[in-house]
Amino acid sequence: MTIRGTGTREDPWQLTTAPGTSAYTMYRDEVSDPPQLACQVGTTRLAYHASAVEDLHAWLKDQGDWVPLGAADEQKPAPEGTVEAWGRSPDNPVGGWYGLRKGYRGRFGMYLPPLLEALGLAELEHNPRNNRIRAR
Fold it and tell me: Is this prediction's pTM over 0.90?
């Protein structure tokens, strides 16, 4: 997969969800405190800790195999053992939610895996549902 965009506010990464059903953009905002990944999905803006890219890649390497994405909204529980559950876990490097915008902290398992794939850090399935990811 060829990545489009440089990951800046002026030239965000152009991404598509794993099933290929939704397009969105992301960029690194290093000026924010804490630094964040700004994610724009239609008119909805989400934000995640910028460290999510390196942290998720390291966690996937530790898992050593395919991990289900398990994407879910903030208000819904995340299935255990999924990328989404790890993105909310008190045991992850940020000690909880990677999502920074209250009410929109979920969907970590939806929007971060395609970025890792685009950056060459992971292999991602592209099925209609129940996709998985593994580190490269």
Answer: yes
